[in-house]
Amino acid sequence: YQASKGLAADGIVGPNTRDEIMKDLGIEVKRPDGWVMPVDDPVIRSGAGEFKAIRLTGWHKGVDLLGNVGDPVKAAKSGKVVVASEVGDYGNVVYIDHDDRLSTRYAHLERIDVRVGDIIETGQQIGIMGRTGNVTTEPTHLHFEVRKIKEGASSSVRNEDTDVLNPNKILPIDSLPKK
């Protein structure tokens, strides 16, 4: 079934597979405020990849969604690209600022398909999953963060201008399978 729908044929009934089943049954699929998952059939990296997991470098500020090098990474919501480059432990990363003063970050990309200043649509491919930054000994994954841009700040470019949010506040991350 999954392969016939263009999804990862892994036998896991994740949110995207569930959405396809619902569509086949004629049930309308809705996401809060137009958000979509940044990868198809997402699976959370259990333990260190979970939001607020304690790590050697501090607490984990996002969620790690497992995949393969080359898997498409999509914008979770429309917005404007404010960073599209290599940034330290993130490796190749894209930051997108959204109209609701939220911002998303997509790290460890193999390839970046957008440029600073681009206006991105929800679900548009922004890059492909990779192993850049600090993932050389970890499984391939997309590090996905959601941040709130502080009052008075014009963008999410500087960490001190943002507050980290639990991604589950905007997407059903906690309901995803873990591996």
Explain what this protein looks like in three dimensions.
The relative contact order is 0.20. It is built from one helix and eleven strands; from the N terminus they run αβββββββββββ. The protein has a single domain, classed as Glucose Permease (Domain IIA), CATH 2.70.70. The model has no long low-confidence stretch (mean pLDDT 85). The strands form two sheets. Strands 3, 4, 5, 6, 7, 8, 9, 10 and 11 form a nine-stranded antiparallel β-sheet that branches. The chain starts with 14 loop residues before the first helix and ends in a 14-residue tail after the last strand. A hairpin with a 5-residue loop joins strand 5 and strand 6. By secondary structure, it is mainly beta.
Number of domains: 1
Low-confidence stretches: none
Report how far the terminal alpha carbons are from each other.
Answer: 22 Å
| CATH H-tier superfamily | Glucose Permease (Domain IIA)
Strand content: 25-35%
**Count of runs of 4 or more consecutive helical residues:** 1
Brief rundown of the structure:
The chain is mainly beta and 179 residues long. The protein contains one helix and eleven strands; from the N terminus they run αβββββββββββ. The protein has one domain (35-175): Glucose Permease (Domain IIA) (Distorted Sandwich), CATH 2.70.70.
